[in-house]
Write a structure and sequence with these properties.
single chain, 430 residues, alpha+beta, 5-stranded antiparallel sheet, 13 helices, disordered N terminus, transmembrane, transmembrane helix
């Protein structure tokens, strides 16, 4: 039989989550004295066995890890129309290069096979409390995070907000910048990838998983993840480890493992710090890994609390909120941001913003010099004569006139600059 499949874009593949509810009905309604007191919840093994029967490669985990005891959660890959990939070498795929099964059919089969409610979808909440309490729900991979770098300057904050199109908190602790989203779930990838001469550390918490990224000059140096392991569901029982469908599922969820040497080189760590870092990276279930890694790297530990979601970045000393703006306003906001770092350029920017007496003296001198130079050059632009001397004279004449008009422009710009009001320089009106 001929393969009549089409080849859809693999970029349309999305993560799919399968959540199996507890069997225990307590809390949903009032029960009589004769009612069964407890029905054991489904297990990871039961759910995995059914997925094997369906030919669905996946990874499964006990819901207790996610704060939802009694639930079982599996993750796999499917098309964005809700179809789940399958390993079925004896079947001919009809839609796409791989056999698939609608997510609704997976849920129905699981429900009937183990007598339990099942949900399948790209993104959904699972109850975090026993039914009967207020159903708040728990997102499977809720995110919060922070970016830490000694190379991010205070004047970069408006541009960072423009790149992410998210409102950001920007603070500096002991000279190190800490950036976090006003919305804790904001994606800070563009902030972490922002070009910096020093390594930038991205910290993200996804539910019970902690992820670390080290970026330098826009290039990822290392990435690592700590957290509970998922159990693999292999319908082929190891007979087809190189099957493409398995690669699409398992490679997508493969946790990153950082190279210790890459981080040591990036931060210039000593032998003692390198040993401590290697020990931390080898511990998949390390307690509070963000705080530990920040201590090893000599970076402010407050960033770990922000990344964990325990502390709002707004509570950091000197934190300021930066809103995303159109590009032109972003450039102006960068110019009117009061730098907190040392340096001559920063000194000049602070001078322009706050305008002490020295600014007015320098601006007045610049204005006087520009006006005087323009007057001299435009009043006596030079003369021309015949022949080669004439050509030289015309050149000199043009240069003097151009220089004279440049002096006029400089004088106008200086006057306009002196007239910029406080509110437009980022300061409150007098």
């Amino acid at each position: 039989m001929h393969d009549v499949s089409t080849d859809p874009d693999l970029l349309t593949l999305v993560p799919m989550y399968i959540a199996v509810a507890p069997r225990d009905p307590r809390g949903e309604r009032r029960l009589s004295d004769e009612a069964i007191r407890h029905v054991p919840a489904a297990t990871v093994e039961e759910v995995s066995d059914v997925l094997v029967q369906l030919g669905v490669p996946a990874e499964a985990i006990d819901g207790a890890v996610l704060g939802a005891p009694g639930w079982v959660v599996a993750r796999t890959v499917g098309w964005n129309d809700g179809r789940v990939l399958r390993w079925a070498p004896d079947e001919n795929p009809v839609r796409g290069p791989f056999p698939t099964l609608p997510g609704e059919d997976v849920a129905t089969y699981l429900s009937r096979a183990i007598d339990v409610e099942c949900l399948v979808g790209e993104d959904f909440d699972i109850p975090a409390e026993t039914p009967g309490a207020e159903e708040i729900g728990l997102v499977i991979e809720s995110r919060c995070g922070a970016v830490v770098s000694a190379g991010l300057r205070s004047t970069d904050a408006p541009h960072l907000a423009h790149l992410t199109q998210e409102a950001l908190w920007f603070a500096q602790v002991d000279g190190v910048s800490v950036v976090a989203g006003v919305d804790p779930s904001a994606d800070l990838a563009d902030v972490a990838a922002y070009t910096s001469s020093t390594p930038t550390l991205g910290l993200e918490r996804h539910g019970p998983w902690r992820r670390l990224g080290v970026v330098r000059d826009g290039e990822v140096v290392a990435a690592h993840e700590w957290g509970p392991a998922w159990s693999r569901v292999d319908p082929s029982a190891g007979q087809a480890p190189d099957a493409e469908v398995f690669s699409l599922v398992f490679d997508r969820f493969e946790p990153p493992q950082a190279d210790t040497d890459a981080i040591v080189e990036a931060f210039g760590l000593g032998q003692e710090e390198a040993v401590a870092l290697a020990r931390l990276l080898r511990a998949p279930d390390a307690d509070d890994p963000f705080t530990t890694v920040l201590r090893i790297l000599g970076l402010p530990e407050e960033a770990a609390e922000v990344a964990e979601g325990w502390l709002s970045a707004a509570e950091l000393p000197g934190a300021r909120r930066v809103e995303p703006q159109p590009f032109a306003r972003t450039v102006w906001s960068t110019l009117t941001t009061d730098p907190t770092e040392p340096g001559r350029l920063n000194d000049l920017q602070r001078l322009w913003i706050h305008r002490p007496a020295a600014y007015w003296v320098l601006s007045a001198a610049e204005l006087a010099l520009s006006v005087a130079a323009a007057a001299v050059l435009l009043r006596h632009p030079g003369t021309t004569t015949g022949g080669a001397t004439a050509r030289t004279g015309r050149g000199t004449h043009l240069v003097r006139r151009a220089a004279g008009w440049a002096g006029v422009v400089a004088a106008v710009v200086t006057v306009a600059d002196m007239a910029v009001p406080r509110r437009m320089r980022g300061l409150d009106p007098r």
